[in-house]
Amino acid sequence: MLREQITENLDLSVDPMTVVAQGAALYASTISIDANIIELERDKLKVQLDLKYEATTVEKEEMVSIRILPDKMDGVLPEIFMVDLHRLPEGFKTGQKQINDKPCLIDVLLESNCPNEFEILAFDGMGNRLECEPNRFTILQGVGGVSSMQVLPYHIGIVKYYSAQEKELFSPVKGLEKSKPIKSGLTGVADGLKTQKDIRPGSAEDMIRIPIYQGDYHSEGTNPDLNFHVSDAVLSGESFPKVLSSGSPVNLRIKVDASGLMTVIAEFPTIEHEEMVKIEIQQSNPPTQDELRGKVKLSLGVAKELADQTISDRLLRLSGEIDDIGTSADGRLRLMDEYRKILLELDDLEKKTEWPKLEQAMKESFYELEELVERIVVNGDDEKLNMDKVEAYIIDLRQKIEHAISEQDTRLAKELTKEVGQLDFDLRNAVTGNAMDAQLLRHIDESFGDYHWKNATKARQLVNQGLQMAANGQTSAIRPLIIELIALLPDDEKSDLLVG
Hints:
By secondary structure, this protein is of the alpha+beta class. It has four domains: about 15-150, Uncharacterised protein PF12988, DUF3872 (Immunoglobulin-like), CATH 2.60.40; about 155-280, Substrate Binding Domain Of DNAk, Chain A, domain 1 (Sandwich), CATH 2.60.34; about 290-355, no CATH class; about 355-495, no CATH class. It has helices at about 1-5, 15-30, 35-40, 145-150, 290-305, 310-325, 330-380, 385-405, 410-430, 435-445, 455-470, 480-485, 490-495; strands spanning about 45-50, 55, 60-70, 80-85, 95-100, 105-110, 115-125, 130, 130-135, 135-140, 155-160, 165-170, 185-195, 205-215, 230-235, 250-255, 260-270, 275-280. Strands 2, 4, 5, 7, 8 and 10 form a six-stranded mixed sheet that branches. The protein has a four-stranded mixed sheet with strand order 6-3-1-9, with no helix packed on it. A four-stranded antiparallel sheet has the order 12-11-14-15, with no helix packed on it. Helix 6 runs antiparallel to helix 7 and helix 7 packs antiparallel against helix 8 (about 385-405). The chain is globular, with a radius of gyration of 30 Å. Residues about 145-150 have low confidence and may be disordered.
């Protein structure tokens, strides 16, 4: 009706129920918390404060009354107690004021037409920091404050490759957490990323794709499908000044403004270059029926692998509903919400069952390593090795494995399993005259087409050169070639080959 009678230019990016909820939350922020609730949640080991102030005002200054409540505390109150009120994120500071059990009035300056959040920093007479409760309060200034109360409706993050889990997972962007006031804009940071392939200058075919997601689930290393896919920030080599090698560091800054515009700035320090992409944050579209089927099928495979019949049955029922909803967008959104609930349970189950398998694999690989060392000694092949160094290495590995088990550290367990496998390979290689290197080279040759080489021509030449060396008995020269070959693989395929 609005389109027909008024205008086509409608903003549908925010759910009407969200607007109602935000208004209710704004109103709730001006109401004092019930005294009974305060008493139930009070931490009496902290210095207890009583605050009185106007929650909303049209004035540019406001008086805050603060006093100590010694009868609400179990801890020892210092003789001198000071507070300093800081307006966040960085702004007005009152300076330290001494307070006691009598009301002390402190003037604060306010920014116009927005919520002003203050942090209470407490100190004793020696300048030592103390914990107090409450330690924050907010004053809404101006009638325009309601419009300035716009907050980020979802957590924002990216999807990146996690080598420990060997899959792409969600990574929250620090600074872009849900419910942060946008005001004049927010900036989030994601540092320490790595490129997955070479980017050639002037090449439109060489691209870096950064998937951006938003949603209610912001835990590090979780399934991206728990959130909504906003868009991909795509950078091509067309404007790059020089070659960006695979594995180069990338630092991201993501800026979000009140209009719903997102600016992604990627910094490449090794080539002293920056790229910028602008993305409009729009209402997330529901997945298509085919996309839903694909997601459910993938999760069904995981559920069957974990032998959880209950989750499998729920996914099968959900799969049947996909065919019944037709092209209904509301129906697909409802099914996606249901799928996310199942996915949360499945991820939790996967994490619970992952550790026993990792622990068993790590222990078995270490026991095999110990047996290998015993056989080497019995067969008299230890003369080819520096056994003191080998034994010291094994002792160190055993201690790390015990630590991984005590902490149930999945990342460390995976790394140690690979490290044990690497040492096993190197020992066998040393006592067999580099036969393991030759065998690995033949494996690469047989599986050559299964790898995504950065430079397939060069890789083929190296393999042929190595095979010729093996045929001539020059096995000691194969290892450097294999290292070169591994450098030509993308990061997610390097782990397939033990030699590094």
